[in-house]
Amino acid sequence: MAVCHTAQKRVLVTGGSGLVGRAIQHVINEEGGGKDGEEWIFLSSKDADLMNKEETQAVFQKHKPTHVIHLAAMVGGLFKNMRVNLDFWRNNIYINDNVLQAAHEVDAVKVVSCLSTCIFPDKTTYPIDETMIHNGPPHASNFGYSYAKRMIDVHNRAYFEQYGRSYTSVIPTNVFGPHDNFNIEDGHVLPGLIHKAYRAQKEGKPLVVWGSGTPRRQFIYSLDLARLVLWVVRDYNEVEPIILSVGEEEEVSIKEAAEAVVRALDFKEEVVYDTDKSDGQFKKTASNAKLMRYLPNFAFTPFEKALKETCDWFVANYDNARK
């Protein structure tokens, strides 16, 4: 558990050792993103089992946060989700209910929970915006996780209606960066590709990309997301969620992402596509118009630059990276 600063605003970050939690730590500690009067507490799973109500209450009573960034979740890529949808539903429902109720019990004035674009309806028009979350069932491949995350929005509205709480949520698109989970079987698409390419390069074998390469995704660099989450904690006052994403025009296909990984790692072998593997959702294009109304001048890190930094981090930290 990392603690920095002393003072009146005490911000507790659940999932503080994960991809986004580590990015927030970096922005606070390395980029001077912290402000006077803020104390930051980063929890990891070692500090409390958030599926356990008593442990969650105890860690919140210990730190008594005024603000909470709720990142902790049971997460995994497409193929893990397809195997254990029930586990994703139950475990995330427990975590979210425990965290939001514990925050309420210590009188936290603000909670920002992290959702995902997979919560959006499978059958929809594009681009998707914040008003469309509950317009139909999510994609069948990860419905357990998707519904559990979607329910946070219901939770937040109910806390506001019943208690006037300013509990809200952010919806990032596909996040990537240093400290990601680079597990090939259970990780997300980009870190999985990075690890596979790194390993194939070492073994002199082709890079095998799962699926056809045609699905399209918007990727957001974890450090950009961290900077935006800090803004949400301090300055975004709606209960309604906000999509945190690059623009629609920044969407890339899995094939383009694989080619970018090849360039970033200077991969010299062949690239092949295993079309027997599932593609998942073809696209889930999200609109960042609401974010742009609030922050019209926010500068996102270019995808190729962010990917190169991520690949360089993975190579330099290969022995210790989650994989």
UniProtKB/TrEMBL annotation:
Residues that span the membrane, as ranges: none
Pathway annotation: Nucleotide-sugar biosynthesis; GDP-L-fucose biosynthesis via de novo pathway; GDP-L-fucose from GDP-alpha-D-mannose: step 2/2
GO MF annotation: an example: isomerase activity
Keyword Oxidoreductase assigned: yes
UniProt keyword annotations, A-Z: Isomerase, NADP, Oxidoreductase
Lineage top rank: taxon: Eukaryota
Ranges where the NAD-dependent epimerase/dehydratase domain occurs: 11-247
Assigned EC number: 1.1.1.271
InterPro entries: Epimerase_deHydtase, GDP_fucose/colitose_synth, NAD(P)-bd_dom_sf
Enzyme class, broadest EC rank: oxidoreductase
Family: Belongs to the NAD(P)-dependent epimerase/dehydratase family. Fucose synthase subfamily.
Function description: Catalyzes the two-step NADP-dependent conversion of GDP-4-dehydro-6-deoxy-D-mannose to GDP-fucose, involving an epimerase and a reductase reaction.
Protein name per Swiss-Prot or TrEMBL: GDP-L-fucose synthase
Species this chain originates from: Gadus morhua
Gene that encodes the chain: GFUS
